[in-house]
Design goal:
434 residues; alpha+beta; Beta-Lactamase; Helix Hairpins; Heat Shock Protein 90; 3 domains; 12 helices; 19% strand; elongated
Length: 434
C-alpha cells in the first residue's frame, strides 16, 4: 500500500470516528429528552421531579461536576434544582435582580468562564466569582433558557478542575435547554388548561346545585322537622309523673339520627361545591352513586321520576376522585330528570346500574325520555353544544373530560322505543381490588 492510499485510509477511519462521536452525542441528547418526558409522565402534578431531571440530564450532557437550575421571577432567579457532590455547601436560593448573575445572562447567549480564579471578576472581588472559587469550582458555564426570545430561566454548570467546556458540549447543552424549555412550556399550558377545566367544573357544580335548590331545602327540612317533633315528644315524656325516661331516651336517639342525616346532606353538598384540587383515592363506586341519588331524591319525586338502582354487590373498588366522579353522576341524573319532563308521569323512570366489565367498573344511566336525534349523538360531548333551549353546553363536555382524565370513557346511545343510555367506565387498579 503506497503512502497516498495509507493517508486515504487514515482519513476515512478518522471520518468514521467523528461520525460515531456525533451519533453518540445525538443519542445522549435524545436519551436526555426522553428522561425529561418520562419524568413528566410520572409526575403530572409535581414539577420538582421534572426540574431535577432536566438539570441532571443537562449536567450529564456537559460532563460537569455541579449544576443549578433557576427560573426567572419578579424578584430575581429562584433556584428550583441543584446537583452537587457530597459535602458541597448549598447555594443561595434566590439571586436578586440587578446582580452580576442577572447581567451575566442578559445577553441570552451561553457564557463560559474557563478559569474563574484567573478572571478579572474574581480579582475585582465580585461576590459571585469569589463564592464559586470558595466552593472549589474553577470552570463555569451559564446557559440561558428562552421562550419566544424571553428569558425564563438559566442552567449553570461547573467543574472542580480547570477544563473549559468544548464547543460541542456547549452546543449540546444549549440545544437541550431549548428543547427542555419547549417541554416546560407544554407542561405550563397543560396546567393552565387543567386549571381552566377545574374552574369550569366547579362553576358547573355550583350551577347544578342552583337547579336543585328546592330539592336540597326539602332534603334538609325533613330531618330538621323530624328533630323538632322528636324533641317535643321527649319534653312531653319528661312532663309525665313520673317521667318516662325510656321514651325520652328513644326520642333523643331519634334526634341524633335525624341530626346526623341532616349533617350528611350538608357534608355531601359541601364536598361537591367546595373548590379543591383533584384527589386520587380508593373509593367504593356504589357508595358514591347512592350518595348522589340521595341528594337528587327530592328532585326526582317532585318531577314524578322513579329512580331504580341495580348495583353489583361485589363491584371492585377503583382509584379516582370522588368529587369529580360524583359530579359526572350528578350531571347525568339531573339531565335525565329534565329530559323526562315531557313524557307521561307513569313512564318516567331512571335506572342506574353498576357492574364489573373488561374495561373496569361500568356505570349505566338509562332514562325513558324522548331520546336524542341521531345527528345529536356525534356532537353531544362537544363544548358549548346543547340540545336544551337554555343550556350552556358545558356539562357533558366536562363530564367526558373528567372520565377521560381518570382513564375511562363516557358515551351515549339511543334506546328503543325511547330514552337514552349514558354509560361510563373507570379502570380498576390492581391495588384497589377489594
Amino acid at each position: 500500500m503506497n503512502q497516498l492510499e495509507t493517508g486515504e485510509a487514515s482519513e476515512a477511519a478518522h471520518g468514521r470516528s467523528d461520525l460515531q462521536k456525533e451519533l453518540a452525542e445525538v443519542l445522549r441528547q435524545r436519551a436526555a429528552i426522553s428522561a425529561v418526558l418520562h419524568a413528566i409522565a410520572g409526575s403530572p402534578h409535581d414539577l420538582q421531579p421534572i426540574f431535577d431531571t432536566i438539570l441532571d440530564s443537562a449536567r450529564r450532557l456537559s460532563r460537569a461536576d455541579t449544576g443549578s437550575f433557576r427560573l426567572v421571577e419578579e424578584a430575581g432567579f429562584r433556584l428550583v434544582a441543584q446537583v452537587n457532590p457530597a459535602g458541597f455547601e448549598k447555594i443561595s436560593p434566590l439571586v436578586v435582580r440587578g446582580s452580576f448573575y442577572d447581567r451575566l445572562i442578559a445577553s441570552k447567549s451561553p457564557f463560559l468562564i474557563p478559569d474563574v480564579a484567573a478572571h478579572e471578576l474574581y480579582r475585582a472581588g465580585e461576590a459571585l466569582a469569589v463564592a464559586v472559587v470558595k466552593r472549589g469550582l474553577r470552570t463555569v458555564l451559564f446557559v440561558p433558557m428562552l421562550r419566544n426570545d424571553q428569558l425564563i430561566g438559566s442552567l449553570a454548570f461547573a467543574r472542580q478542575r480547570v477544563e473549559p467546556f468544548t464547543e460541542k458540549e456547549i452546543e449540546l447543552v444549549t440545544d437541550f435547554a431549548a428543547q427542555a424549555t419547549i417541554v416546560l412550556e407544554i407542561v405550563r399550558r397543560e396546567r393552565q388548561y387543567r386549571q381552566l377545566q377545574m374552574e369550569l367544573a366547579h362553576a358547573n357544580r355550583v350551577a347544578t346545585f342552583g337547579q336543585l335548590t328546592a330539592s336540597i331545602v326539602h332534603e334538609l327540612k325533613q330531618p330538621i322537622a323530624a328533630t323538632r317533633t322528636h324533641g317535643s315528644a321527649g319534653l312531653r315524656w319528661l312532663d309525665k309523673t313520673p317521667p318516662n325516661l325510656a321514651e325520652v331516651g328513644q326520642a333523643l336517639a331519634r334526634i341524633m339520627k335525624d341530626t346526623d342525616r341532616a349533617g350528611d346532606v350538608i357534608d355531601r353538598i359541601g364536598a361537591l361545591i367546595r373548590k379543591a384540587p383533584p384527589r386520587n383515592e380508593v373509593l367504593d363506586l356504589n357508595e358514591a352513586i347512592l350518595e348522589v341519588t340521595a341528594l337528587t331524591h327530592s328532585e326526582a319525586l317532585n318531577t314524578g321520576v322513579t329512580v331504580r338502582t341495580q348495583l353489583a354487590p361485589s363491584l371492585p373498588r377503583i382509584h379516582g376522585d370522588r368529587v369529580q366522579l360524583q359530579q359526572v353522576m350528578l350531571n347525568l341524573i339531573v339531565n335525565a330528570i329534565q329530559a323526562m319532563s315531557g313524557v307521561a308521569e307513569d313512564q318516567r323512570e331512571l335506572v342506574i346500574s353498576s357492574e364489573a366489565s373488561e374495561e373496569g367498573a361500568h356505570v349505566g344511566m338509562r332514562d325513558t325520555g324522548p331520546g336524542l336525534h341521531p345527528e345529536s349523538l356525534p356532537r353531544l360531548f362537544e363544548p358549548f353544544y346543547t340540545t336544551k333551549p337554555d343550556g350552556m353546553g358545558i356539562g357533558l363536555s366536562i363530564c367526558r373530560s373528567i372520565i377521560e382524565a381518570q382513564g375511562g370513557r363516557l358515551w351515549a346511545t339511543a334506546c328503543e322505543p325511547q330514552g337514552t343510555l349514558f354509560q361510563f367506565t373507570i379502570p380498576i387498579s390492581p391495588t384497589a381490588v377489594s
